[in-house]
Amino acid sequence: MLDQPIAQIKKLRVEFQTKDGPVVGVEDVSFEVNPGETVCIVGESGSGKSVSSLSLMRLVEFGGGEIAGGQLLFDRRNGDEMDLSNADQDLMKQIRGNEIGMIFQEPMTALNPVFTVERQLTEGLRIHKDMTKAQAEARALELLRQVRIPEPERRLKQYPHELSGGMRQRVVIAMAMACEPRLLIADEPTTALDVTIQAEILALMDRLKRETGTAVMFITHDMAVVAQMADRVVVMFRGNKVEEGTVNEIFENPQHDYTKSLLAAVPKLGEMQGKAAPEPMKLLGEEGQNIAPIPGTNEVLLTVKNLTTRFAVKGGLLRRTISNVHAVEDVSFTLNRGQTLSLVGESGCGKSSAGRSILRLVEPMAGEVDLDGVDIMKLDPSGLRKARLDMQMIFQDPFASLNPQMQLVDQVAEPMRNYGVASGSELQDRVAQLFDKVQLPRSFMRRFPHEMSGGQRQRIAIARALALNPKLIIADEAVSALDVSVQAQVLNLMMELQSELGLSYLFISHDMAVVERVSHHVGVMYLGRIVELGPRARVFENPQHAYTQALMKAVPIADPNKRKSEKDLNFKPIPSPIHPIGYAPEPSQYNEVEPGHFVLTTDSGY
Fold it and tell me: Does the keyword ATP-binding apply (predicted)?
C-alpha cells in the first residue's frame, strides 16, 4: 500500500517521574506522517514537541521518561507495520539510524569529538548495511558531496572541532541520511545557526527529501521556518495538539487562539515599510495598547570613531604573539539620544566585540568613543567606574548574567547600593518601581533566578540595567534565546521604556526581522567592518552592498507563498579574520549613495 502513513502516533502519553510525583510531558497527542511529506510540529519550549519525537525513537527512556499510554505505529521497510511503543531495545537498535534517522539541535553534542568525520559516517553503514570498509568510505564521500561540503576528501579526515557550526550540522544531516531512512526526524536543526547557513540547510533538507522520497518530521518554534518547509503543520501547547492543518490553512486561517497569538508575535520582514519610526508590535489579548511610533531626537549621544579591536593569537615555544584576530576593524558611527542603532551580521563578524569595546569590557587597540561629551577611551579606572553610571549592558543569556544565590530584589538593588544612589526605604521603593516598569509582580522580589522562566529573567536583567538611569543600553542578542511570544513582549517592553525614558539602544542581533522592527538606524557588519550603514528604511528597502543583499535574500519570511529556492542562495565562504603581525589593513572608506546611507568602498572580502 502506497498511501499508508509511514508513522502514526496515536493518543501518546509520556510521564516523567520526579520527587514530587509524575510530571506529564505529553498528555494526549495523535498525528501521522505520510511518505514524502514534511510535517512541522510547532510550539514553544515546554510544549512537548521534542518529547514526542524522542518517544518515536524510543530515546525518551534514556532521559527518565516513560511511555504511559498510546501507540507508535511504524511502517517498516519490509512492509510490516509494528508498534514501537512496546518494541525491545535490540529491535530498536536495528531501526534507529537505519529506518528512522534523527538530526539533533546541537551538532557538537551529536558528534563524537574523538573520532574523525569518516569514522562516524561509516559506522552506521557498516552495522546496518553490511558494507566493506571501502564501500562505506565511498558512500561517505558521496554523502558529503550531497550535503555540499567544500573539499569533502579533506573533511573526512578531520575531527568535529575543526569544522564550523554549519559544517558540523551538515555532517549530522549526512549521518542521518546515510542509510536512506524512511523517516527523518529533525529537532530544531537550524536554531543555533546563522541566517545564511540556516537558509542553505533548509534548502538542502528540502532537496534531499524530494530526491529520496523520505518523510520528514520537523520540530521548530520558528514560524518563518515552518512557512518555508512544511506541507502540514501540527501546533502543540502544554503537551496537547491544539490545531492541525495544511501550511496554507494554518497561516491564512488559523482557528485556535494559541495559533493566532503565535502568528501575531512573529515579526515579519517588510512589515515596517513606509513607517518612519519603530513602533511596538500589536499583540493579541492586549487591547487598547498605546502603539505610538518612537521618533527619538536628532541630538547625538554616542560617537564612535575608527574603533579597532584585535585579539592576539599566541604560539610557539615562548607563547609569543604570532598573529592577530582582527575582530573590529575601523568602525565609526553615531547614535542619537532616544534612538536605536542596530548592528547586524553573522557570528564572528565582530558585532559583540564592538559592543564590549565601547563599554571597555574588552580593551580596544585604537579609536575614540565619546558618550555625551565624555571621552571613554581616556578615562582611568575610577573615571570609567563613574562613566558606567551612564552605560549599561543586557547580555544574551540572562541566567548566566544573574547571580544564582541572590534574591531578585538584591540583584536589582545592587547597582544602586554600589554607587550609593539610594538606601533604606528609598531603595526598596525604587526597586518596586523597577519591577512595575518591567511588568513583573512585586511578589517576585523574594524569588531566586532559577524560579523564573527565561523571559522573566530577561526582564530582571533589563530592570537591573535601568536601575542607574543610564543614557545608553547595549543589548547583545538580548532576545535571541527567547520563545516567539516572550520575545515579542520583551521587545515591546524595551520600546515602551525607550519612548518613556528617552533611552538609546545599541542593539546587537542577527535576526533581521527583529532589527527591522526596533531600529532607527542599521549597520551591517562583515569581517569586523561596517559594510553598510544608514536609516533603517533605506538599508532594508534599498540594500547596496553585495553582502547586505545576500543577507536579505537568506531571511525566511513567515508566509508560505514566499518560499526560497536553493538557486536564490549563493553565499561565499567567509574568509579568515586572522592576519600575521605585520599586516596593515586599509582604512574603511565609504560612498554616500543617498543622504545618510553609506556603503563601504574598501575591499571587504565579500
Answer: yes
Cell of 165: 557550526
Could you tell me which residues are beta bridge partners of residue 370? Answer: 303, 375
CA distance 547 to 533: 12
Provide the sign of the torsion angle of the four alpha carbons 416, 417, 418, 421, taken in this order.
positive
Q: Is the Cβ–Cβ distance between 342 and 512 less than 8 Å?
A: no
Assigned architecture for domain 7-264: 3-Layer(aba) Sandwich (3.40)
Position 503 confidence tier, pLDDT thresholds 50, 70, 90: very high
Whole-angstrom distance, CA of residue 280 vs CA of residue 287: 13
Least confident stretch, 16-30, 191-205, 451-465: 191-205
The count of other CB atoms within 10 Å of the CB of residue 78 is: 6
Which residues touch 214 (CB under 8 Å, ≥6 apart)? Answer: 36, 101, 177, 180, 181, 182, 183, 184, 208
DSSP structure class, residue 160:
G
Contacts of 125 (CB under 8 A, 6+ apart): 131, 135, 136, 139, 140, 178, 179
Question: What nine digits make up the cell of 451?
Answer: 524560579
Q: CA gyration radius for the chain?
A: 26
Residue type, position 44, single letter: E
Do residues 346 and 574 touch, judged by C-beta distance below 8 A? yes
Residue 116 grid cell: 574523525
Q: What length does the chain have?
A: 606
For residue 135, give every residue at least 6 positions away whose Cβ sits within 8 Å of its Cβ, in sequence order, or none.
125
Domain boundaries for CATH 3.40.50.300 within the chain: 7-264, 300-390+470-600
User: For residue 144, what is its C-alpha cell?
Assistant: 558529503
* Per-residue three-class SS string for 81-116: EEEHHHCCHHHHHHHECCCEEEECCCHHHHCCCCCC
**Strand order of the sheet with strand 472-476?**
391-394, 472-476, 504-509, 340-344, 521-526, 529-535, 597-600, 590-594
Q: Rounded to an integer, what distance in angstroms lies between the CA atom of residue 447 and that of residue 412? A: 12
Q: Please say whether the beta carbons of 506 and 302 come within 8 A.
A: yes
Closest CA to 228 of 554, 583, 481: 554
Report yes or no: 481 and 396 within 8 Å, Cβ to Cβ. Answer: yes
Tell me what percent of the residues of the chain surpass a pLDDT of 70: 97
Contacts of 58 (CB under 8 A, 6+ apart): 84, 87, 89, 92, 96
> So what's the pLDDT on residue 376?
93
Fold of 300-390+470-600: Rossmann fold (3.40.50)
Contacts of 150 (CB under 8 A, 6+ apart): 573
Helices and strands per DSSP (H, E), number in the chain: 21, 23
Beta-bridge partners for 219 = 41, 187
CA distance 137 to 292: 61
Residues 403-460: tens digit of each pLDDT? 999 999 999 999 999 999 888 899 999 999 999 988 889 988 998 888 887 788 888 9
What type of residue is 400? A
Maximum separation of any 2 CA atoms in the chain, in Å: 78
Q: Are 144 and 106 in contact (CB under 8 A)?
A: no
Q: What's the one-letter identity of residue 25?
A: G
The C-alpha cell of 67 is what?
A: 511511555
The DSSP code sequence of 397-426 is -HHHHS-TTS-HHHHHHHHHHHHTS--HHH
Instruction: Classify burial at 132, counting beta carbons within 10 Å of its beta carbon; exposed 0-12, middle 13-18, buried 19 or more.
Output: exposed
pTM: 0.83
